[in-house]
Specification:
Strand content: 35-45%
Largest sheet: 22 strands, antiparallel, barrel
Number of helices: 11
Helix content: under 10%
Radius of gyration: 30 Å
Structural class: mainly beta
Shape: globular
Distance between the termini: 23 Å
Length: 995
């Protein structure tokens, strides 16, 4: 495997050229990952001598290497022999193929240093985020917005207003390798490279035809997968005109929601409706929070429940017949105005009738369809110069079900409502009441579906090469990139909340059941029977119109980049290399939404969305998916300088260099900011031993979403109101802030590596310590945090941004970003690998490799008064376990290979802030609450795969992921797909060909 953050892309003069020899020498088809000393890898000796090259070691450059083919990650210096101090993991095309995933994103995301990446199994519970099915990377757990993803060293237009691209839109079959820089790189690339850089390198000199056909499904018979890929390339005009093209189609059926209750899709049985119950008792010697399974909310059921007053506990079946609800925990309704249940906890009982629970209706994995086409034409206008153009057009469609039904607790129903069963009317009269509190899952209304459609159009034109200037060779890389992304979000089968409120308020007029409000009646209101599961079609058409919420987003990115690198002179220890250049970037977005969500002043009423006086003129009328209009733009001007100075080059002292860079950036929104780095490497005079270190100042500017975001409205159906000790329906409105300033990070990495030793050939070891401190973090408090900080009088200024008892419209909490927080994280990256050729005299080779990341701390400080920093290292409901590792063992011969892979992360906690106790508990506080069970187990997954060469050009393969069908751990938030496998055992098989 070729390793290092500075890796030379080898020009392929013939099919199966020398770059394949390097890969064969390093891996022999082993699906391994390397995190070693970053160097410029040069062209290997001919294939028959490849076996002599130790793993992770490059041979001397040959005359075939052309400077225009050098691809650099983590630095702008491209001169041969340069050694950079930043550790880098490289995944080659053989490793990508061996992992046999339908999306290359999944292969890269398995690396231990990647924590919190998002894919088709995340964001499936959301209606309004617009990130469903978005595949993006997060290094070091600091978030996808702080991880820069590049294609051939160039930026890619964002697929979401947060600015992160969608890996599903990349030309995957032509990817030759993926470089993952584990450290800050803002001095080299500018904003966003705080956690690191993920750079996809394509094969720009591919010749021939290759393809891949793959299918798969889970052990439950769902998430059926089809992947078809085809690529071709050739050279014309005496090998000066290079043309490559690829296309691919991928379809994953996904795993939809289960039914109401606790049954998941496909018969999966791991869901137990686990809930973190807040007793709201702080100082009685027992814990405030209880982590319990089979939690039963008692303020709604599948087809309706009277939740307070003298009739409390009467539920309704699908036919609308009343029956006595079975409370868990032996609960007995208090039949008071507050709706308490004796013997149960606040808001929940344990066990009982769980048929109305809605969480099982969430999609476990989004349905996704990818169509992608890519083309590149390059012309060698000189022996060391090329002009080129690329085009990348792709489309990704996804579909998910956020939750089951559209539950509505805390409704008030009049006893005189004509849909109220006669028995209940009699009971009302006996009790002397005229109305009662009511809650329903609204199962009869069906389930909401969210559809996204992302289309990317990306064009690049550039020139690169090398020219002699003043007696030394200088490389240049100049390009212009324009990208446009269109994102359409459509929501179907979702109700208009205010029409629902009018429809359930029914009365009798002239012998007919009608809506009670005359204005609503005059505008088409149809009465809705919510007792049972048999609403009329007319009522459904009224409250759930055919045209649902939509959002239409257009984003553009324009980049002009100039980069130059050379070695103008030499020091006592070797050539001094420098790189310099500049970049201009413009980012723009515009979003439009439907009138009912955005408001009539922003999106005028029309034939599809006619005016209705029942609805709020300012929008927020939908149960969820209340998208808004917005737009904004900013420009960036940058200049950088990087230098590498050799300081030692002798047998006695070894070889050492110092590398430094500085970048000045001017943002049109927030002014000027500086980034820099300084580091070095030292190859000790001990065979195979190297020391490396780097420290840097990195930046992340606020993105379009944070600056100009159209308000994103998220429905919180079970939001806890601590003022009244009840769960309410509320809307969370996330809005932008144009006064934000860039985040500032300090990255430090120190490491030692042992590899390429003549004494122990085939053995590589490395240990790197990292530390990242980010200040002025752009963040916002969660909706519940805002309310709690007001309730506890910790931050009274938060009291003015929410209303949980709003008689004139929906309850709401406004969430806005500020430069108010900081993040501190540190830990270790460890890698060990060994390759044994002809083990025990057998043909082939055995490769063993393991990578691990230990997170010592991940501390977030909100910056708010009277709060303490929160360490989430080892919190397994998030994305930062204490330990995470990946191990691979491969035995490969000329005809077949077998792969074994283990993925593991350590046991953890619900939260490090909790004090675990059962009796004798101290007083519970907001900063140090008490809990009865703070344990969340880790997980171990075992995968197996293999290949068989049917012919020299055709290979059959298989892969089984999660062989033991390990279930995810229980979570108070349904499940955590960021860490756990939610699908179960997955089978894949396919055929690859290369002519």
């Amino acid at each position: 495997m070729i390793t290092g953050s500075h890796t030379r892309s080898l020009r392929q003069r013939t099919l199966g050229a020398v770059s394949v020899a390097v890969l064969a020498a390093a891996t022999v088809a082993a699906p391994a990952w390397a995190q070693t000393t970053p160097e410029v890898a040069a062209q290997a000796t001919p294939a028959q001598d490849a076996a002599a090259i130790p793993p992770n070691q490059a041979a001397e450059p040959s005359e075939e290497v052309n400077s225009r083919d050098i691809i650099v990650t983590g630095s702008r210096i491209t001169t041969g022999g340069f050694t950079a101090p930043t550790p880098t993991t490289v995944i080659g095309e053989e490793q990508i193929a061996a992992n046999a995933q339908p999306n290359i994103f999944t292969t890269v995301a398995q690396l231990p240093s990647l924590q919190g990446s998002t894919g088709t199994a995340t964001n499936t519970f959301s209606t309004s985020s617009g990130q469903q099915g978005l595949s993006s990377f997060s290094l070091r757990g600091v978030g996808a917005i702080r991880t820069l993803t590049l294609l051939d060293g160039q930026r890619v237009v964002g697929a979401n207003v947060t600015g992160v691209p969608d890996i599903s839109l990349f030309p995957q079959l032509l990817i030759k390798r993926v470089d993952v820089v584990n450290g800050g790189a803002s001095a080299s690339y500018g904003s966003d490279a705080v956690g690191g850089v993920v750079n996809f390198i394509t094969d720009t000199r591919f010749k021939g035809i290759k393809g891949n056909i793959q299918g798969g499904l889970t052990t439950y018979g769902d998430d059926k997968q089809v992947l078809i890929q085809l690529a071709g390339g050739t050279s014309l005009l005496n090998d000066t005109l290079h043309v490559i093209a690829s296309t691919e189609y991928a379809h994953e059926e996904g795993v939809g929601g289960g039914d109401f209750g606790i049954g998941l899709a496909g018969g999966r049985d791991w869901f137990r409706q686990s809930t973190l119950i807040n007793r709201n008792v702080l100082n009685d010697g027992t814990p405030q929070y209880l982590f319990r399974d089979y939690a039963q909310p008692y303020n709604y059921t599948k087809y309706g429940l009277i939740t307070a007053g003298p009739l409390q506990g009467i539920a309704f079946d699908q036919s609308g017949n009343p029956f006595q609800f079975q409370y868990g925990s032996g609960g007995v309704p208090a039949r008071d105005a507050a709706g308490n249940v004796r013997g149960c906890f606040p808001g929940f009982c344990l066990g009982g009738d769980l048929s109305g629970n809605v969480d099982a209706g969430r999609s476990l994995q989004s349905k996704i369809q990818r169509v992608n086409s890519y083309g590149r034409i390059g012309y060698d206008f000189a022996p060391n110069g090329e002009i080129y153009g690329t085009i990348n057009i792709g489309q990704v469609k996804t579909n998910n079900q956020p939750v089951g039904g559209m539950n509505r607790p805390n409704l008030t129903i009049q006893c005189a409502n004509p849909f109220v069963p006669a028995l209940i009317k009699t009971a009302c009269a006996t009790a002397g009441i005229t109305n009662f509190q009511y809650g329903t899952s609204n199962a009869a209304l069906g389930n909401t579906q969210v559809f996204t459609d992302r289309r990317q159009y990306r064009f690049v034109a550039g020139a690169k090469g090398r020219e002699a200037v003043a007696g030394s060779d200088w490389s240049y890389d100049i390009y212009y990139e324009h990208g446009t992304n269109y994102t359409d979000v459509d929501v179907s089968n979702i109700m208009l909340s205010r029409r629902f409120n009018q429809a359930i308020n029914a009365t009798t007029l002239n012998g007919a059941i009608v809506c009670a409000d005359p204005t609503a009646r005059a505008n088409g209101c149809q009465p809705l029977n919510i007792f049972g599961g048999n609403p009329s079609q007319a009522a459904l058409n009224y409250i759930i119109p055919q045209n649902g919420p939509f959002q239409r987003t257009r984003q553009t990115q324009d980049v002009i980049s100039l980069n130059f690198s050379g070695s103008p002179f030499s020091s006592w220890a070797g050539p001094v290399s420098i790189a310099f250049g500049g970049e201009f970037r413009h980012e723009y977005y515009r979003v439009r939404a439907d009138p009912y969500g955005a408001g009539f002043a922003n999106s005028p009423a029309n034939g599809a969305y006619p005016a209705d006086p029942v609805l709020l003129a300012d929008g927020n009328n939908w149960y969820a998916g209340n998208y808004k209009n917005g737009g904004g733009a900013y420009s960036v001007k940058e200049a950088f300088l990087e230098a590498d100075l050799p300081i030692i080059n002798s047998e006695a002292g070894g070889r050492a260099n110092i590398n430094g860079a500085v970048r000045v950036t001017d943002y049109s929104t927030s002014g000027t900011v500086w980034a820099w780095k300084i580091g070095g490497t030292w190859d000790l005079p001990v065979d195979g031993l190297r020391i490396r270190g780097v420290t840097s100042r990195d930046v992340r500017a606020p993105n379009l979403s944070e600056l100009f975001a159209a308000p994103v409205t998220t429905t919180l159906p079970g939001f806890f109101d601590p003022f009244n000790n009840v769960n309410v329906l509320a809307l969370q409105n996330t809005i932008g802030n144009v006064n934000l300033t860039p985040e500032i990070a300090r990255n430090t990495t120190l490491g030692i590596a042992f590899s390429n030793s003549q004494a122990i050939p085939g053995l590589s070891l490395s240990v790197d310590y990292y530390k990242i401190k980010i200040t002025d973090v752009i963040s916002s408090l969660g909706a519940q945090d805002i309310v709690n900080l007001c309730f506890l009088n910790i931050a009274p200024e938060t009291c003015g941004v929410f209303n949980l008892n709003n008689p004139n419209g929906p309850n709401f909490i406004n969430v806005q970003s500020f430069n108010l927080a900081s993040i501190l994280t540190d830990g270790f990256d460890i890698e060990a690998s060994y390759r044994w050729r002809n083990p025990l005299g057998l043909p082939g080779s055995l490769t063993l490799r393991a990578l691990a990341t230990n997170i010592r701390r991940f501390i977030t400080d909100t910056g708010l008064p009277n709060t303490i920093p929160n360490d989430t290292a080892g919190v397994n409901i998030g994305s930062t376990p204490k330990w995470k590792w990946l191990a691979v063992q491969t035995y490969a011969t000329d005809n077949w290979s077998l792969l074994l892979q283990e993925r593991w992360f350590s046991d953890g906690k619900l939260g490090n802030q909790y004090i675990e106790c059962t009796t004798g508990c101290p007083a519970s506080t907001a900063n140090r609450p008490t809990i009865d069970n703070n344990f969340i187990p880790g997980a171990f997954y075992f995968d197996v795969g293999g290949t068989y060469n049917v012919t020299k050009a055709v290979t059959a393969y298989f892969k089984v992921d999660n062989v033991f069908n390990r279930d995810p751990a229980r979570s108070p938030f349904f499940v955590n797909p960021a860490l756990y496998d939610v699908l179960g055992r997955v089978y894949r098989a396919g055929v690859r060909f290369n002519f």
